[in-house]
């Protein structure tokens, strides 16, 4: 019998609001912006089907996928499958979304830069139709 380690790197954290996410997503804050850091870091867990709304970052973001697999899509481009070990470097002001797929959960560490006191501009939800196309 194999002994598999199914312990997550970080705790699941608190549920994120459905104002910015579809489905069940959770965050564990790791580093807050302070006098030394112009960024924040958090571990975000997406249950199957959960995803961010479309959004942008004024100074970009980096995602480090730590568990499972999911999707990342920039507006006007085909969605990409992202999986454990992938690093996604998102340029500033690029409209995009990311999250789990229709069949798999995904966790990533998000490193999000600030421009002044702003780090994200939330836009409209990813529609079910957009999500279904991304999952094909």
Set down the secondary structure blueprint.
Blueprint lengths: L13 E2 L5 E2 L2 E7 L7 E8 L4 E2 L2 E2 L4 E14 L5 E4 L3 E4 L5 E5 L5 E8 L7 E2 L5 H7 L2
Antiparallel strand pairs: 1-3, 2-5, 3-4, 4-11, 6-12, 7-8, 7-9, 7-10, 7-11
Strand pairing plus helix content: what structural class? mainly beta
Give the distance, in angstroms, between the N- and C-terminal Cα atoms: 35 Å
The total beta strand count reads 12
Largest sheet at a glance?
8 strands, antiparallel
N-to-C SSE series?
Answer: EEEEEEEEEEEEH
Strand coverage percent: 35-45%
DSSP helical segment count: 1
> Could you tell me the radius of gyration in angstroms?
15 Å
Unreliable sequence segments: 1-5
Overall morphology? globular
Mean of residue pLDDT?
94
Indicate the percent of residues in helices: under 10%
Question: What would the keywords be for this entry?
Answer:
disordered N terminus, 1 helix, single chain, globular, mainly beta, 136 residues, 8-stranded antiparallel β-sheet
